[in-house]
Structure formats: structure tokens, C-alpha cells
Specification:
binds magnesium ion, 210 residues, single chain, alpha/beta, binds adenosine-5'-triphosphate
Length: 210
């Protein structure tokens, strides 16, 4: 899927968060968005998914305006994904899968849990470590085999070893399925390891770093 932001502006009341943001991504790009807390990373992702509407400009998906639609064929972690705490990770995924427009099915859920080494049996999500919960969030985003994966700070709270593991898996998924991946982080080093395109948000504007 080809994604294009054309002169996107977002204001909340009089407060401008994004001004004249322009970028485009090709299928299979891994794009990193870096910026300080409050720089507008989450807002940018919400605009792409259709959860927020721009104040000006246009978002094009395969050259068609997103308009009032929600982005199709996308998986996302935006802020903390909600899980039912007293159910296991597997059961949570099964429930989320059952309500998704495209079902992955039990075998694929198990394959993804294996892939992310999340073999927790019947352990309730409330007893998961933060790292396990982050992995579960990423698996949730992968349900339905999305063409676009939107990950808002997926590795910031992980230790070096786990974040490197998750990064390797994301690279595998990108290679396997040509999934377009957008990742936000306030840590530039995380993004450098994985991204083929790197963007920075500051002073309400987006620039691409060489
Ligand atoms: N629904 C909203 N109404 C009003 N202001 C909002 C709304 N959503 C976001 N903002 C404001 O937009 C700015 C950018 O917020 P955003 O959440 O995109 O930052 P961020 O870059 O994701 O930060 P962080 O690294 O802390 O996640 C902030 O000043 C925030 O207060
Ligand atoms: Mg954010």
C-alpha cells in the first residue's frame, strides 16, 4: 500500500500540533518517527488510522483519499492495548481475532506466539511481565495479516536483549510479507537499527533524515 500525507495540519482548538506534514511511504518501507514527548507522533498515527481527522490537507492510500474512512488492512498498537487481565494471552488473542475483519485462526495465533517466544500456557495477562505484554500487543497487531503495521513505542520499555529480539522479528515479518511498518519512538537509536526511512518531528513539522 502506498501512503501519502499531503500538507497535513492538525490543530486542537487553537493549538497546532502538526503543520504542513508531507511524506509518502512505499509498500515494504520500515519508517521510524522520532520526536520528544508531545511532539505529535501518536497524533500522526491516529490521523493515518482515521481515529483523528486532519484540520487541513489530505491523506491518500493507494492514491485515494482516506476521507472519513478508517484505514483498512492495518494492525496497530497505539498506547496500551487493552487485554482482559484474568484471561490468558492466547485467550485474549483468540477473542480479538474473532472480532477482527480478517481472522488469523488458532494455528496462526499459535505460530505468532511461538515466533515471539510467548509460551505462557494458561498464565493470566495480569501476571505477564511488561515485556510479555508488549510482545502480546505486537502479536495482536499482527492478527489478520495486515499490510500496514503501526507501532507506537513498541520497544521503549523493553531491555536491550528483548528489544533486539523484537526488532529481529519485525525485520523477519517485513521480509516475509512485505509489511509496511511505521514505528514511533523517542529514542533515535532504536529506530536506526531497523528503519529504512527515518523521520523526525519537532516544532510541529516533520523532516526526513537522509
Ligand atoms: N485529543 C486531543 N485533544 C487535545 N490535544 C491533544 C489531543 N491528542 C493529543 N493532543 C496534544 O497533541 C500533542 C502531541 O501529542 P502526541 O500524543 O501525539 O505526542 P507524542 O509525540 O506521541 O508524545 P509521547 O512521546 O509522549 O507519546 C500534545 O501536546 C497533546 O497534548
Ligand atoms: Mg505518543
Amino acid at each position: 500500500m502506498y501512503i501519502e500525507f499531503k500538507n497535513i495540519t492538525k490543530k486542537f482548538g487553537k493549538t497546532e500540533v502538526l503543520r504542513d506534514v508531507n511524506f509518502s511511504l512505499e509498500k515494504g518501507d520500515i519508517a521510524g518517527f522520532q520526536g520528544r514527548n508531545g511532539s505529535g507522533k501518536t497524533v500522526l498515527f491516529k490521523l493515518l488510522t482515521g481515529l483523528l481527522k486532519p484540520s487541513g490537507g489530505e491523506i491518500l492510500i493507494d492514491n485515494s483519499p482516506l476521507g472519513n474512512d478508517f484505514l483498512q488492512n492495518c494492525g496497530m498498537i497505539i498506547e496500551t492495548p487493552g487485554f482482559i487481565p484474568h484471561y490468558s494471552g492466547y485467550k485474549n488473542l483468540k477473542i480479538l481475532d474473532s472480532v477482527s475483519p480478517v481472522q488469523s485462526g488458532k494455528e496462526e495465533i499459535k505460530r505468532l506466539m511461538d515466533m515471539f517466544e510467548l509460551k505462557s500456557g494458561n498464565l493470566a495477562v495480569s501476571k505477564y511481565s511488561l515485556g510479555m505484554r508488549q510482545k502480546l500487543g505486537i502479536i495482536q497487531a499482527l492478527l489478520g495479516n495486515p499490510e500496514i503495521l503501526i507501532l507506537d513505542e513498541p520497544i521503549n520499555s523493553l531491555d536491550t536483549k528483548t528489544s533486539e529480539f523484537v526488532i529481529r522479528k519485525l525485520i523477519e515479518i517485513n521480509a516475509e510479507r512485505q509489511t509496511t511498518i511505521l514505528i514511533a519512538s523517542h529514542i533515535g537509536e532504536d529506530l536506526a537499527k531497523i528503519c529504512t526511512r527515518r523521520f523526525s518531528l519537532s516544532d510541529n513539522t516533520l523532516i526526513e533524515n537522509g
